[in-house]
Amino acid sequence: MEVKTGPILLEQQVRFDDRHPVALQLATALPGQVLLISMRAGQHLRDHRVATPITIQIICGEGQITAGDAAYPAQPGMFLSLAADVVHGASAETDLVLLVHRAGVAEAETVEAGTPPLFADTDPVTLDVRDLVPRDRHARIFATFNALRPGEALRLVNDHDPKPLKYQFAAEHAGEATWEPEQEGPEVWVVRIGKVAAGA
Protein backbone atom coordinates (compact mmCIF):
# COMPACT_ATOMS: atom_id res chain seq x y z
CA MET A 1 0.00 0.00 0.00
CA GLU A 2 1.41 3.38 -0.97
CA VAL A 3 1.74 5.88 1.84
CA LYS A 4 1.08 9.42 0.70
CA THR A 5 3.13 11.90 2.64
CA GLY A 6 3.93 15.57 2.35
CA PRO A 7 5.18 18.37 4.57
CA ILE A 8 3.89 18.04 8.13
CA LEU A 9 3.54 21.13 10.32
CA LEU A 10 4.05 19.66 13.77
CA GLU A 11 2.52 22.60 15.62
CA GLN A 12 -0.76 21.90 13.81
CA GLN A 13 -0.70 18.25 14.92
CA VAL A 14 -0.17 18.79 18.64
CA ARG A 15 -3.13 17.72 20.79
CA PHE A 16 -3.12 18.09 24.57
CA ASP A 17 -5.46 16.38 27.03
CA ASP A 18 -5.58 17.48 30.67
CA ARG A 19 -6.17 13.86 31.77
CA HIS A 20 -3.29 12.03 30.10
CA PRO A 21 -0.54 12.23 27.45
CA VAL A 22 -1.72 12.09 23.84
CA ALA A 23 0.10 10.15 21.10
CA LEU A 24 -0.63 10.82 17.44
CA GLN A 25 0.83 8.54 14.77
CA LEU A 26 2.16 10.53 11.81
CA ALA A 27 2.12 9.24 8.24
CA THR A 28 5.54 8.24 6.92
CA ALA A 29 6.84 6.36 3.89
CA LEU A 30 9.85 5.15 5.90
CA PRO A 31 9.93 1.80 7.70
CA GLY A 32 8.80 2.03 11.31
CA GLN A 33 6.46 4.32 13.19
CA VAL A 34 6.56 8.05 14.01
CA LEU A 35 4.63 9.31 17.05
CA LEU A 36 4.01 12.87 18.19
CA ILE A 37 3.52 12.71 21.97
CA SER A 38 2.07 15.72 23.81
CA MET A 39 2.13 15.98 27.61
CA ARG A 40 0.70 18.63 29.89
CA ALA A 41 2.88 19.91 32.74
CA GLY A 42 2.89 17.31 35.53
CA GLN A 43 1.98 14.37 33.30
CA HIS A 44 4.12 11.24 33.02
CA LEU A 45 4.76 8.40 30.58
CA ARG A 46 5.34 5.40 32.81
CA ASP A 47 8.45 3.28 32.26
CA HIS A 48 8.07 0.90 29.31
CA ARG A 49 10.13 -0.73 26.58
CA VAL A 50 9.78 -1.47 22.87
CA ALA A 51 11.34 -4.27 20.86
CA THR A 52 13.15 -2.09 18.31
CA PRO A 53 15.54 0.90 18.55
CA ILE A 54 13.93 4.32 18.97
CA THR A 55 14.95 7.95 18.73
CA ILE A 56 13.36 10.73 20.78
CA GLN A 57 13.51 14.41 19.83
CA ILE A 58 12.23 17.17 22.11
CA ILE A 59 10.15 19.59 20.03
CA CYS A 60 9.21 22.01 22.81
CA GLY A 61 8.83 22.19 26.57
CA GLU A 62 10.94 20.93 29.45
CA GLY A 63 10.97 17.85 31.64
CA GLN A 64 12.96 14.67 32.07
CA ILE A 65 13.61 11.53 30.01
CA THR A 66 14.69 8.38 31.83
CA ALA A 67 16.47 5.56 30.03
CA GLY A 68 17.80 2.56 31.89
CA ASP A 69 19.58 3.91 34.98
CA ALA A 70 20.13 7.37 33.48
CA ALA A 71 18.06 10.56 33.50
CA TYR A 72 18.33 13.35 30.95
CA PRO A 73 16.89 16.88 31.12
CA ALA A 74 14.38 17.29 28.30
CA GLN A 75 14.93 20.58 26.49
CA PRO A 76 13.99 21.77 22.99
CA GLY A 77 16.33 20.34 20.37
CA MET A 78 17.52 17.43 22.52
CA PHE A 79 17.93 14.18 20.56
CA LEU A 80 18.23 10.78 22.25
CA SER A 81 18.77 7.37 20.62
CA LEU A 82 17.91 4.20 22.53
CA ALA A 83 18.63 0.57 21.73
CA ALA A 84 15.87 -2.02 21.59
CA ASP A 85 14.36 -3.10 24.91
CA VAL A 86 15.78 -0.18 26.94
CA VAL A 87 13.30 0.74 29.68
CA HIS A 88 12.41 4.42 29.31
CA GLY A 89 9.86 6.99 30.43
CA ALA A 90 9.22 10.72 30.52
CA SER A 91 7.85 13.43 32.79
CA ALA A 92 6.80 16.96 31.87
CA GLU A 93 7.70 20.01 33.96
CA THR A 94 6.06 22.31 31.40
CA ASP A 95 3.87 21.36 28.45
CA LEU A 96 6.14 18.95 26.58
CA VAL A 97 6.07 17.66 22.99
CA LEU A 98 8.19 14.68 21.85
CA LEU A 99 8.75 13.26 18.38
CA VAL A 100 9.49 9.54 18.60
CA HIS A 101 10.64 7.31 15.76
CA ARG A 102 10.46 3.55 16.25
CA ALA A 103 12.63 1.63 13.79
CA GLY A 104 10.89 -0.83 11.49
CA VAL A 105 11.80 -4.31 10.41
CA ALA A 106 14.25 -4.27 7.51
CA GLU A 107 12.45 -4.37 4.19
CA ALA A 108 14.67 -7.25 3.11
CA GLU A 109 13.08 -9.53 5.69
CA THR A 110 10.14 -11.50 4.35
CA VAL A 111 7.49 -13.63 5.97
CA GLU A 112 8.00 -17.26 5.05
CA ALA A 113 5.25 -19.81 4.58
CA GLY A 114 4.38 -21.48 7.84
CA THR A 115 5.36 -18.48 9.96
CA PRO A 116 3.20 -18.36 13.13
CA PRO A 117 0.43 -15.75 12.98
CA LEU A 118 0.86 -12.43 14.75
CA PHE A 119 -1.80 -13.39 17.26
CA ALA A 120 -2.69 -16.82 18.54
CA ASP A 121 -6.16 -18.07 17.70
CA THR A 122 -7.29 -18.27 21.31
CA ASP A 123 -10.27 -16.87 23.16
CA PRO A 124 -9.39 -13.50 24.67
CA VAL A 125 -9.58 -12.74 28.38
CA THR A 126 -12.74 -10.68 29.03
CA LEU A 127 -12.33 -7.66 31.29
CA ASP A 128 -15.54 -5.78 32.14
CA VAL A 129 -14.61 -2.50 33.87
CA ARG A 130 -18.10 -0.99 34.03
CA ASP A 131 -18.42 -1.66 37.75
CA LEU A 132 -14.99 -0.25 38.60
CA VAL A 133 -14.40 3.28 39.85
CA PRO A 134 -13.21 5.27 36.78
CA ARG A 135 -9.87 6.21 38.36
CA ASP A 136 -9.03 2.51 38.84
CA ARG A 137 -9.90 1.32 35.34
CA HIS A 138 -6.71 2.07 33.42
CA ALA A 139 -4.51 0.49 36.08
CA ARG A 140 -6.59 -2.71 35.96
CA ILE A 141 -6.56 -2.76 32.15
CA PHE A 142 -2.79 -2.36 31.89
CA ALA A 143 -2.18 -4.92 34.63
CA THR A 144 -4.33 -7.42 32.72
CA PHE A 145 -2.59 -6.61 29.42
CA ASN A 146 0.88 -6.95 30.99
CA ALA A 147 -0.08 -10.39 32.33
CA LEU A 148 -0.93 -11.64 28.84
CA ARG A 149 1.51 -13.83 26.97
CA PRO A 150 2.56 -12.73 23.48
CA GLY A 151 -0.14 -13.77 21.03
CA GLU A 152 -2.95 -13.53 23.61
CA ALA A 153 -5.61 -10.84 23.80
CA LEU A 154 -8.08 -9.27 26.18
CA ARG A 155 -11.62 -8.22 25.34
CA LEU A 156 -12.38 -4.96 27.12
CA VAL A 157 -15.99 -4.10 27.96
CA ASN A 158 -16.62 -0.45 28.85
CA ASP A 159 -19.51 1.99 29.27
CA HIS A 160 -17.92 4.79 27.23
CA ASP A 161 -15.74 5.25 24.17
CA PRO A 162 -12.21 4.16 25.29
CA LYS A 163 -10.43 6.50 22.86
CA PRO A 164 -8.16 8.00 25.60
CA LEU A 165 -7.05 4.46 26.44
CA LYS A 166 -6.21 3.87 22.77
CA TYR A 167 -3.94 6.94 22.83
CA GLN A 168 -2.27 5.69 26.00
CA PHE A 169 -1.60 2.29 24.44
CA ALA A 170 -0.12 4.02 21.38
CA ALA A 171 2.20 6.06 23.59
CA GLU A 172 3.27 3.40 26.08
CA HIS A 173 3.02 0.18 24.04
CA ALA A 174 3.83 1.36 20.52
CA GLY A 175 4.03 -1.66 18.25
CA GLU A 176 3.24 -4.05 21.10
CA ALA A 177 -0.54 -4.10 20.92
CA THR A 178 -3.35 -4.10 18.39
CA TRP A 179 -6.74 -2.43 18.80
CA GLU A 180 -9.82 -4.03 17.23
CA PRO A 181 -13.23 -2.49 18.06
CA GLU A 182 -16.00 -5.10 18.22
CA GLN A 183 -18.88 -2.91 19.46
CA GLU A 184 -19.04 0.88 19.49
CA GLY A 185 -21.90 2.11 21.69
CA PRO A 186 -24.30 3.58 22.25
CA GLU A 187 -24.32 2.01 25.74
CA VAL A 188 -21.53 -0.58 25.59
CA TRP A 189 -18.13 -0.42 23.91
CA VAL A 190 -16.14 -3.63 23.34
CA VAL A 191 -12.59 -3.71 22.00
CA ARG A 192 -10.15 -6.57 21.53
CA ILE A 193 -6.60 -5.61 22.61
CA GLY A 194 -3.97 -8.09 21.51
CA LYS A 195 -0.36 -8.49 22.62
CA VAL A 196 1.98 -8.81 19.67
CA ALA A 197 3.73 -12.16 19.45
CA ALA A 198 7.47 -12.14 20.02
CA GLY A 199 9.45 -11.67 16.83
CA ALA A 200 6.46 -10.40 14.89
Structure description:
- The structure is a single chain.
- With 200 residues, this protein is mainly β.
- The protein folds into 2 domains: 10-102, Jelly Rolls (Sandwich), CATH 2.60.120; 125-195, Translation Initiation Factor IF3 (2-Layer Sandwich).
- It is built from 3 helices and 13 strands; from the N terminus they run αββββββββββαβαββ.
Topology:
Blueprint: H1 10-13, E1 22-26, E2 33-39, E3 44-48, E4 54-60, E5 63-67, E6 70-74, E7 79-82, E8 88-92, E9 96-102, E10 125-128, H2 134-147, E11 153-158, H3 163-172, E12 177-184, E13 189-195
Parallel strand pairs: 10-11
Antiparallel strand pairs: 1-2, 2-9, 3-8, 4-7, 4-9, 5-6, 5-8, 11-13, 12-13
How much helical structure, as a percent, in the residues?
A: 10-25%
Question: Using only CA atoms, what is the Rg?
Answer: 18 Å
**Percent of sequence in beta strands:** 35-45%
Write the CATH homologous superfamily of the largest domain: Jelly Rolls
Return residue spans where pLDDT drops below 50 for at least 5 consecutive residues.
Answer: 106-122
Structural class: mainly beta
- How is the largest sheet built, in terms of strand order? 1-2-9-4-7
